[in-house]
Amino acid sequence: MVNTLYLPELREMLAENNAAELREFSTALHAARTAEFMEGLTPTEAWGVLAHADPETRAEIFGYFDRDKQIEIVENSDRADIAQLIINLPNDDRVDILRDVNPEIVQDLLPHLPLSDRRDILRLQSYPEGTAGSVMTTAYARIPEGYTVRQALEELGRQAENIETIYYVFVVDDREHLRGLVTARQLVSAIGKPNTKIDDIMERDLVTVRADEDREKVAQEVARFDLHAIPVVDDDHHMVGIITHDDVIDVLREEASEDVYRMAAMEPLVENYLEAAFHSIWWKRAFWLSWLFLAEMLTLFVMKGFVHSIDKVVALAFFVPLCIATGGMSGTQAATLITRAMALGHIQLSDWLRVIRHELAIGIALGFSLGAMGFVGAYLATDHATLGGAAAWKFSLVIAQAVMAICLWGTLVGSMLPLAFRRFGVDPAYASSPFVATFVDVTGILILFSLAEIYLF
Questions:
Q1: 97 plus 16 within the same structural domain
Q2: What's the CA gap between 274 and 367, in Å, rounded?
Q3: Is residue 259 over pLDDT 80?
Q4: What are phi and psi of 26, to 5 degrees?
Q5: Is residue 271 domain-resident?
Q6: Model pTM?
Q7: 100 shares a domain with 75
Q8: For residue 183, pLDDT beyond 50
Q9: Do residues 369 and 222 share a domain?
């Protein structure tokens, strides 16, 4: 609500072309807050406000706009002005934006950029989406090996204005091979000994990633070692860029969002929910939902095969929802635990046998607990008239054993499906609630009626 309070004033300033107040508005608050107050403006109006800010402030505020607004501004504004904006954006951010812009417009923009920026953009765009290279920046602090502390500080002062983070300073040789790292803190602490060689204080055993590695794995490495940034190298250990902690946060947020969507069996929604096209949302939800619906229809055929059992013991039909829900819930729990463990790197495909052993023990324990509850519930809640002459204790035993078996089966299926999906190159998040529940529903009914056939008929 708060951001709508400034819209009439902003539009009035734009109508009057009040440059002084628009400039003051652009610099009075943090860039994120300024962008928030401009949410209600159209892309054209927002760009009209930014035109009165200095280039650095303009780029900073622009970076907090939602992606759709950024793209519309880039595609519909003067090419020379947009080129100036792109020059001031962080290297990785501008590449991300240009990936979504109409390619013809990108080709029009590139000639307006300095040659060095143009080469940097094209090089970063060459890395496939989802790799470390696609989220790295080439604006990092570097110094040659052999420098003294005094030389390093002087060089750092020259680079400071154009680099994204100054905390890590990377040491490279004359061929850009990564040799080590020294922190800004170490340099400041060594000011009293300005002739100290950087080689004597730098760290040599560094955690690095290759440019073609999966960005989610990179995020895990940064989180694991609590790094502010991680260097990206090629196969010959040439330094090609860094990935900063703020980019890692973005990666984790995007990956978490994708997993949430896929756990609900739908394709990730990139657009704003309320602004997304109806057909886009319909298709993303209907595709997997249709397959799951068809799979669930198998339960009809399974139950049809046991219709004679239901005719004899009507009470069996009462416990179908309970039994299949037990399998779905236990399977979903297992799938969630395994998917998260895989995302954090705690479980590898080679650990499948250990996972089975672990979940087998858990499934048996859970099955006994729920089976005992099912026995008591079935014995107390079932009307003898619906048992078709079967003994109440025997019917309760069927329900108890069915709950135990289905719970164990659901646990094993839920733990194995994510590993199987990963083995065949499918996101394990898809193996969560819908797929586990659908699979266990069909097999759960089969287990329940099979036990009834053995014990009651």
A1: yes
A2: 43
A3: no
A4: -70, -25
A5: no
A6: 0.63
A7: yes
A8: yes
A9: no
Domain range spanning residue 388? 297-456
Query: What amino acid is encoded at 429 in this protein?
Result: A
Residue 419 clears pLDDT 50, i.e. is over it = yes
Q: Please state, in angstroms and rounded to a whole number, the distance separating the CA atoms of residues 91 and 94.
A: 6
HSE, CB side, 13 Å, CA atoms: give it for residue 240: 23
Strand, coil or helix: 259:
helix
Token duo for residue 303: 């139950």
Query: Contact at 8 Å (CB) between 127 and 104?
Result: no
150 and 92 within one domain:
no
| Whether residue 220 sits in one domain with residue 112 | no
Residue at 118 is within a domain: yes
Distance (Å, whole) CA 38 – CA 29: 12
Bridge pairing between strands 141-144 and 239-244: unpaired
The owner of tokens 């479980």 is 347
CA-wise closest residue to 49 among 101, 12, 3, 93: 12
- Number of Cβ within a 10 Å radius of residue 349: 11
DSSP letter (8 states) at residue 2: G
**Least confident segment among 3-17, 78-92, 353-367, 410-424:** 3-17
Number of domains in the chain: 3
pLDDT band for 272, please (50, 70, 90 cuts).
Answer: low
What is the Cα–Cα distance from 353 to 81, expressed in whole angstroms?
A: 59
- Domain end (from 130, 162, 189): 130
Neighbours of 160 (CB within 10 A): 11
